[in-house]
Amino acid sequence: MLNKINQLQDEIKALSASTMEQVEALRVKYLSKKGEVSALMADFRNVAADQKRQIGMAINELKELATNKINDLRKQLASADTSLDGLDLTRTPSPVKLGTRHPLSIVREEIIAIFRRLGFTIAEGPEIEDDWHVFSSLNFAADHPARDMQDTFFIQRNPDVLLRTHTSSVQSRVMETTEPPIRIICPGRVYRNEAISARAHCFFHQVEALYVDQNVSYADLRQTLLYFAREMFGPDTKIRLRPSYFPFTEPSAEMDISCNICGGKGCAFCKGTGWVEILGCGMVDPNVLEACGIDSKKYSGFALGMGVERITNLKYRVKDLRMFSENDVRFLDEFQPAH
Ligand code: DAH
C-alpha cells in the first residue's frame, strides 16, 4: 500500500492542466468519493494494526497534497490573462488624441487672467437664485421689465426661485458678506428665456467685475476698462463710453472698442461705424451698496459685466452661437490655447 501511495504522490506532483474542465476532472479522479484517495481510505481497514499509524499519516498527507495541487492549478488558470492572446505587443500604439480647451473657456481664462493682474479675485454664486440677489438688491423696480417671465426662467413663484439672468447677482452676495475693499471677478453661466437662434441662446456666459472701496472713482473704472481692452484686443485698441442705463449703476455706460477687424475704419462687422460694443458698466448705485449693508457715504465702487460669447465672437469670429454648445469636435478642434 505504501508503494501505491508513493506512486500517487509522484503522479499528483506532476499534474498539469490547461482548462478548468481538466482541473475538475483531476479533482474527480483523486478527491471525489469514488476517487483514488477515498479508495485508499476504504482499504485502510485491511491494514495491519502495527502499520495503521504510518499508513494513516501517509494517506492524510496524500490527500492534502492533492487538495493543494488542484487548488493551485485552479488559481493559476484563473489569473492567467487570456485577453492578450493573439495581440501583437510589439506594435506601435495608435496616437492618443488630446482634447482642446473650449473656446469659451479659453476666453474666460484670459479675461480672468487680465483682472487678476489688477488684484481681482474670483467669486462665484449659484445659478439657481432668488429674486433678491438677481433683481431687488440690484435696485430693479418691482415692475422692471427684466423681471418678466419672458426673460426670466422661474422655477417657483412666491417665494421666487429662478435661474439667474446675469452674474451681477454675485455682486450682492459678496457685498452682503464682505467688508470693503472688495475686488472680485465673477465668471458664470446665465439663463434667459430666448428662442434659440444663431444670435441668441437660452444660456450663455458672463463675467462680472466689482470694485468697492473708499474713493473709487469713474476715472478708476475708465482706466481699468482701457487696460482690459488693450490686454484683450491689442495695444492699439481704443475705447469709448456711451451713456446708458442699468438699475444697479449710476451713472451707467456701455463700452465700445475700436473694431478689431477693420481697425476702426469701418467694415461690415462694425456696420461701418468703426466701433463694437463689448460690455456694460457704471458706478455702483448707492441704493445697491445700502441694500447689501455697505455704507454708501463711506464707500463707492464700480461694476462691469460682459458676455463671454460676445468677446469670443470678436476674437474668433464664430458666426453661430449654437456652435458653442453642440460639442462638434470639428469645431472644438480649431481652438488651441495661446499658451
Ligand atoms: N448685468 C448686465 C447684463 O446682464 C451687465 C452689466 C451692466 C453688469 C452694467 C454690470 C454693469 O456690472 O455695471 O446685461
Keywords:
339 residues, alpha+beta, BirA Bifunctional Protein, domain 2, 2 domains, 7-stranded mixed beta sheet, 3-stranded antiparallel beta sheet, 11 helices, 10 strands, 20% strand, elongated, binds 3,4-dihydroxyphenylalanine
What does this structure look like?
With 339 residues, the chain is of the alpha+beta class. It folds into two domains: 2-80; 103-334, BirA Bifunctional Protein, domain 2, CATH 3.30.930. It is built from eleven helices and ten strands. The protein has helices at 2-13, 20-31, 36-43, 52-79, 103-117, 131-134, 168-177, 218-233, 286-291, 308-316, 329-332, and strands spanning 121-122, 128-130, 154-156, 161-163, 182-191, 203-213, 239-246, 249-258, 275-284, 300-307. The strands form two sheets. It has a seven-stranded mixed sheet, with helices on both faces. A hairpin with a 2-residue loop joins strand 7 (239-246) and strand 8. Helix 2 runs antiparallel to helix 4 and helix 5 (103-117) crosses helix 10 (308-316). The protein is elongated and about 115 Å long. The mean pLDDT is 92. Bound molecules: 3,4-dihydroxyphenylalanine. Residues 166, 168, 208, 246, 249, 280-282, 303-305 line the site of 3,4-dihydroxyphenylalanine.
Give a brief rundown of this model.
This protein has about 350 residues and is α+β, with helices and mostly antiparallel strands.
